[in-house]
Amino acid sequence: MENKNLKIGIIGLGLIGGSFALALKQKLNAEIYGKDKYFLDKAKDLGLIDFELDDNNLQEMKFVIIATPVDTIGKIAIELLDKISDKTLVFDTGSIKHNIAQVIENHSKRNQFLLAHPIAGTEYSGPDAAFPSLYENKINIICDTDRTRKDLLKRALEIFRKLNMQIIEMQSKEHDRHIAYVSHLSHISSFMLGKTVMDLEKDEKNIFQMAGSGFASTVRLAKSSPETWTPIFTENQVNILQALDEYIENLENFKKLLQNNKSRNIKELLTRTNHIKNIIDKIG
């Protein structure tokens, strides 16, 4: 696979798609064809892609990667499946899976699609933010793999391993439930913490002067792209609302303990929650 005959199309050339482009060029010497409504010229200038992806060269692609906002993936997937050759695999990179699975469920070429979610990213966006090592040693969750043609799935796994990604398989519905807790809720928390501080502290200079590293790391995710995260929240609404109910209940409980000066209970609560460091250290 490591030659210029490997042609890969990427739709969406921001951080995620652009980093795939750079990694695939570096690791597999692939020829990258790209498409992006806003960033095409910029991606060319930065050397992320070699050529523009269009209907004339689409059937030459071994893979097509969809790296666009999650609310656009289903429509793009259907359009691609209508046009690709029988040898092409399409996979997406979105953090919501079950809605996409439902959209493509009855397509005649459903077995040429793979639901994928690389757990990688930064708080930055756009092609300027892309870098080739984004996916190094990162987890890539692939879903409903029984619906993907075996030869194409095998080829995708070879690509992911070349990029040093760790593979986890699960069902799309299960994925969306888990990711609401461990990813989507943390982004909401970061955005809302940032909003709360700005609401309470009208003088930006005070925020700058008094904010420590703890605040900076906690609100880091609030720098993420609203264009990316708004559709993620709305597309995974049911699971996120369940996570929010639990989160709000915990905040209300903490508030009551504080109001009633229950320092011993607060300490016990914090001590129990401290166990999270063992989990995070294992991940690290």
In brief:
With 284 residues, the chain is of the alpha/beta class. It contains twelve helices and eight strands.
Model description:
With about 280 residues, the protein is an alpha/beta fold. The chain folds into 2 domains: about 5-170, Rossmann fold (3-Layer(aba) Sandwich), CATH 3.40.50; about 175-284, 6-phosphogluconate dehydrogenase C-terminal like domain (6-phosphogluconate dehydrogenase C-terminal fold, Orthogonal Bundle). Helices cover about 50% and strands about 15% of the residues. It contains 12 helices and 8 strands. The protein has helices spanning about 15-30, 40-45, 70-85, 100-105, 150-160, 170-200, 205-210, 215-220, 225-235, 235-260, 265-275, 275-284, and strands spanning about 5-10, 30-35, 50, 65, 90, 115-120, 140-145, 165-170. An 8-stranded mixed β-sheet has the order 3-2-1-4-5-6-7-8, sandwiched between helices. Helix 3 runs parallel beside helix 4 (about 100-105) and helix 6 packs across helix 10 (about 235-260). The radius of gyration is 21 Å and the shape is globular. The two termini are about 30 Å apart. The mean pLDDT is about 95.
